[in-house]
TrEMBL record:
Family: Belongs to the UPF0410 family.
Source species: Salipiger marinus
GO cellular component: plasma membrane
Location(s), subcellular: Cell membrane
UniProt protein name: Uncharacterized membrane protein YeaQ/YmgE, transglycosylase-associated protein family
Keyword terms, alphabetized: Cell membrane, Membrane, Transmembrane, Transmembrane helix
InterPro entries associated with the record: Transgly_assoc (IPR007341)
Amino acid sequence: MGLGLIASIIVGGLAGWIASMIMKADTGLLTNILLGIVGAVVLNAVLALMGIYAANTWVPQLIVGIIGASVLIWGYRKLKS
C-alpha cells in the first residue's frame, strides 16, 4: 500500500535532514526531501534484490531513507573529489 505522497514527502524530508546532519552536508530543504525520497527508493530496490523488504510504515522507511540518503551524499562526495 505504501505511505502515500504527503507521508513520503514528510518522511523523505526528515530522512534527508537527518542524513545531512549525520554526514555534515550543507543542503537545503528541497535537497533534503529529494535525498530522503531517492535514498529510500534506491535502498529499497537494493534490499528487494537481496530478498529484504522494509515495511511500508513510517519508522522502517525513515531508517531506510536515512541510510539511503547518507549513501547518496557519500557517493556524491566521492564523485566530486
